[in-house]
Design a protein that fits this description.
Chain A is mainly β and 109 residues long. Helix content of chain A is 0%, strand content 56%. Chain A has strands at 4-5, 10-14, 19-25, 32-38, 45-51, 56-59, 62-67, 72-77, 86-93, 97-99, 103-108. Helix content of chain B is 0%, strand content 50%. Chain B has strands at 4-7, 10-13, 19-25, 31-37, 43-51, 54-57, 64-66, 76-78, 87-94, 103-105, 109-113. At the A-B interface, strand 4, strand 5, strand 9 and strand 10 of A face strand 5 and strand 10 of B.
Chain lengths: 109, 114
């Protein structure tokens, strides 16, 4: 039972354009949502988070949107840069985190 | 400040062998976690600990054991290695307070069981 789903295994975006990564969840008890970025042969690194009392959180080029009624969150990266090429995991939880399967983002120079 | 360190980076085990994956953090975090990541899959929680002397099972605990005798260390033990335990293992820790606060991950241990 996959409680957190990332339905796009991969995404390619032109440098300078907007990257939009999507994530859906099924457990309405989740109250905290995070995005992690992972490069090959490294551990995931925290990118941005949002609590269930908000619907938007921004940090520089990264913005996370939360739609609780649709149980959907998205990560917007604008403008996209070559260094953003990585695997992105969304995670959700209350006491413990449940991770999605990841989306591999490739930024095309 | 090294963050979260894991040893070894790579290991090949034969079926039935045992080993301990080491994890140490120097951030004085109360919460520590062990995850495994299989190819094309997300991270699945094996065990976690909310403080020294306290551990609890995650989503996929079978075949593993943990202990937490100090705040810094959270070793993961495989007693009878099986091919299904071939995976990349990540240890993580987080700051006191919210258990879902930002988790800091180690670089991972790639384990192959043949």
């Amino acid at each position: 039972d996959q409680q957190v789903k990332q339905n796009s295994p991969s995404l390619s975006v032109q440098e300078g354009r907007i990257s939009i990564l999507n994530c859906d969840y099924t457990n309405s008890m989740f109250d905290y949502f995070l995005w992690y970025k992972k490069y090959p042969a490294e551990g995931p690194t925290f990118l941005i988070s949002i609590s269930s009392i908000k619907d938007k959180n921004e940090d520089g080029r990264f913005t996370v949107f939360l739609n609780k009624s649709a149980k959907h969150l998205s990560l917007h990266i604008v403008p996209s840069q070559p260094g953003d090429s990585a695997v992105y995991f969304c995670a959700a939880g209350s006491e413990k985190l449940t991770f999605g399967t990841g989306t591999r983002l490739t930024i095309i120079p | 400040n090294a963050g979260v360190t894991q040893t070894p980076k790579f290991r090949i085990l034969k079926i039935g062998q045992s080993m301990t994956l080491q994890c140490t953090q120097d951030m004085n975090h109360n919460y520590m976690y062990w995850y495994r990541q299989d190819p094309g899959m997300g991270l699945k929680l094996i065990y976690y600990s909310v403080g020294a002397g306290i551990t609890d099972k995650g989503e996929v605990p079978n075949g593993y054991n943990v202990s937490r005798s100090t705040t810094e260390d959270f070793p993961l033990r495989l007693e009878l290695a099986a091919p299904s335990q071939t995976s990349v293992y990540f240890c993580a820790s987080t700051s006191p307070g919210f258990s879902t606060d930002t988790q800091y991950f180690g670089p991972g241990t790639r384990l192959t069981v043949l």
